[in-house]
Amino acid sequence: MAVVNYRVISGVARIEIDNPPVNALSQAVRAGVAEALARAAADPGVAALVLSGARGTFSAGADLHEVASGEAMAPPLASELQAALEASRKPVVAALEGHALGGGLELALACHFRIGAPGCRLGLPEVKLGLIPGAGGTLRFTRLAGPEAALESLTSGVALTAPRALELGLLDAVAEPLAEEALTFARAAVDEARPLKLAAQLKSRLSAGTPELFARFRERLAGRLRGQLAPALIVDCIEAACTQDAAEALARERAAFLRCRDSEQHRALTHLFFAERAARKVPDIPPGTEPLPVRSAAVIGAGTMGGGIAMCFANAGIPVSVLELNAEALERGLQQVRRNYAASVSRGSLSQGQADAALACIRGVTEYPSLAGADIVIEAVFESLPVKKDVFAALDAVAREGAILATNTSTLDIDAIAAATRRPGAVVGTHFFSPAHIMKLMENVRGPRTDPQVIASVMALGTRLGKVPVLAGNCDGFIGNRMLGFYGLEAEFLLEEGATPEQVDRVMEEFGFAMGPLAVRDLAGNDVGFMIRKNRRLPADERFSPILERMVAAGRLGQKSGRGFYRYEGRTRIADPEVVALIEEVSRERGIVRRRLGDEEIRDRLLAPLVNEGARIVEEGIALRPGDVDVVYVNGYGFPAWRGGPMHWGQVSGLARLIATLERLAPTHGERWGPSAALRRAAATGAFGRAP
Ligand code: T1G
Predict the structure, then answer these.
(1) Whether residue 578 lies in the annotated active site
(2) How confident is the model at residue 275 (pLDDT cuts 50, 70, 90)?
(3) Overall number of domains in the chain
(4) Which residue has a Cα nearest atom 49 of ligand 1?
(5) What is the pLDDT of residue 686?
(6) Are 456 and 545 members of one domain?
(7) Tell me, what's the pLDDT at 70?
(8) CA-to-CA separations, 105 to 15, 53, 407, 487, in angstroms, rounded
(9) Whole-prediction pTM
(10) Cβ of 135 less than 6 Å from ligand 1
(11) Same domain, 620 and 585
(12) Which of 16, 86, 97, 126 is catalytic?
């Protein structure tokens, strides 16, 4: 099947990339474009060229399977196509719609002109894959749009809208219908003998690329980098685009690209890219199962979670009712929602119009019958099984037949909740993460009786809400919280043995977490953490450290009380000797002689239990794949994406070392801390998997 279509229309050669699903620039596509360019150049009947994509999108860039192979790219390389484009004496117009990303945009930037459809998105997201734009993007984007825009766009990887791209000079026009307008634009370029613009040779914007600009940006980036390779190299290449000639800048970019392509960070981020897409697929759902329609939604509970969940629907343009049983609680919840939107507008992440449109989708109600028409109802009330069962019984009495009845519980038994209704097949878990309107993870949980169509519906809904959906089986803590329990407990055991909160948090923040475990506890509230721990269905002989309970008893609840594992001045955390004294008292009571712990021991003792429990979770089928566990932990628990997630990191860093760590923990912590059979099997076979 041709992957590039060629057709001459009134003297204009239209070259169309046609490589479903996203027009990735595979070797066949590159060869097809090269051949088409040569054909158009040789045809005296062709006066101009238009380069476009089929099926409503231009191109998602290089073929990630080819890039991930680590093999040298087979010719023709993107740079050869770009040389042919820039050498063309006939005007070449790129017609951009849908997505023009990565190598796709880089190809378009080597054309003389670019015209975009109003809804097209242009971006260089390579940094999200641990790469840098490797086909001239750091040079041409910078020389067209200027260094400030290049720094922001290339280090964030965020795509630009058509109007913004036009404003920056990346597009010469925005018009529709694109196909016709592109042909008209190409003919006009010929008729008016427009000078052929070569982005690589432009200089007008480079004066903004001062040493101060790059110094300031590097300083700003340092706080976010946490060991990442690509962002820093992108800054270097943009600076080269401003200070060196095109050939030197391109050579620097090439070297930097190859360094990133061969990095573990690129392998980790590519693993996650494909794992997120694999997680959307549920093998045992019959093929052709159509998701149920979700034309309207309802949320029970207008607290932090309920309000955030309602915002997710409103942001997707889905009308949503929010129920509280009294007007004051309802108004309090809706006030917080309004404050959230006002904050987004003031930050510039939403326009006032977008915020108003979203708020118009949200309706407050105080009576259950108001929920009767909703296609999905999500319960987000207090984390107590009896309370949730009452809510579902009331819901069962009013919700329309065929409605999805979802619970936002973070650990409770989905089947026990379903038992409170006459329709257990309609009951499913949709676990959002706070703040729900920001966190990407949607951990969907299937009960043993949940209907396959309901599962397919909430998985599709996750994507529609812009979330990262992952399906979990029904167990205590599902996937993420079941693993998190070990992480929080071990942090306290490390304190008992001699570590300080500052050391534990520093080690994990240097590993790449935005916040260490104890700072996270202070953020979430130590009383909340203690209540969740009491709710967990854990073995009777489970050993706990008394530290958390002592903290709560001492009123050290965390940021909200100004004191927790740290003392707080605003949001600034300050080491507090009183906490160390409290910890030392626990050590004495436990007869523990405190000692100095090394950073690597702290890191391995916090992460090995995650990998161990993750291996069990995959073996039990609670998670369908090890990649699902990685997707959960990166998108819901802050595991650094450029490390690939706990399961990927465990395999890369060495399972044997983690097994040895766990063997040392079991005697003092309890049997479930010892290396699982699943982990031992993974160490022996090289892969995590289902029980044999
Ligand atoms: N290569 C190969 N497959 C890709 C792909 C790509 N670039 N992009 C997507 N797919 C697959 C994806 O795995 C899925 O497969 C299907 O297409 C639909 O994707 C030199 C070297 C374009 C915004 O980072 O961001 O260019 O699961 O579910 O939600 O500088 O795909 O069906 O089997 O995501 O509509 C830079 C990556 C590459 C863009 C569409 N480009 N893609 O989102 O569909 S590096 C990117 C996306 C590069 C140069 C360097 C999104 C999308 P399956 P999907 P979507």
Answers:
(1) no
(2) very high
(3) 4
(4) 103
(5) 87
(6) no
(7) 78
(8) 15, 12, 42, 42
(9) 0.94
(10) yes
(11) no
(12) 126
CATH number for position 355: 3.40.50.720
Ligand 1 contact via 139 beta carbon (within 6 Å): no
Report how far residue 355's alpha carbon sits from residue 363's, in angstroms, rounded to the nearest whole number.
Answer: 14
SS (H, E, C) 206-261: HHHCCHHHHHHHHHHHHHHHCCCCHHHHHHHHHHHHHHCCHHHHHHHHHHHHHHHH
Judge if 465 and 502 occupy the same domain. Answer: no
64 lines ligand 1 (CB under 6 A): yes
CA distance 501 to 548: 12
Q: How many helices (H) and strands (E) does the chain have?
A: 29, 19
Which residue of 64, 141, 257 sits with most ligand 1 atoms within 8 Å of its CB, as the best mutation to test the pocket?
Answer: 64
Active-site entry in 86, 97, 106, 253: 106
Write the CA distances from 325 to 150, 331, 361, integer angstroms.
51, 11, 20
Q: How confident is the model at residue 538 (pLDDT cuts 50, 70, 90)?
A: low
Lookup result for tokens 């073929």: 63
Same domain, 11 and 74: yes
d(CA 403, CA 300): 14
162 lines ligand 1 (CB under 6 A): no
Name residue 366's amino acid.
T
**Which among 443, 472, 501 is the end of a domain?**
472
> What does the alpha-carbon distance between residue 58 and residue 54 come to, in Å, rounded to a whole number?
7
Residue nearest to atom 27 of ligand 1 (CA): 277
Q: What is the pLDDT of residues 109-157, one digit of tens each?
A: 999 999 999 999 999 999 999 999 999 999 999 999 999 999 999 999 9
Residue 274 CA, ligand 1 centroid: distance in Å: 9
Does 348 score more than 90 pLDDT?
no
Q: Is 5 helix (H, G, I), strand (E, B) or coil?
A: strand
Rounded to the nearest angstrom, the distance between the alpha carbon of 60 and the centre of ligand 1 is 6
Indicate whether residue 67 lines ligand 1 (CB < 6 A). yes
Q: Which residue has the tokens 């002109």?
A: 113
* 8-state DSSP, 62: B
**106 is an active site residue:** yes
Does 455 lie in the same domain as 493? no
Residue 279 lies inside a defined structural domain of this protein: no
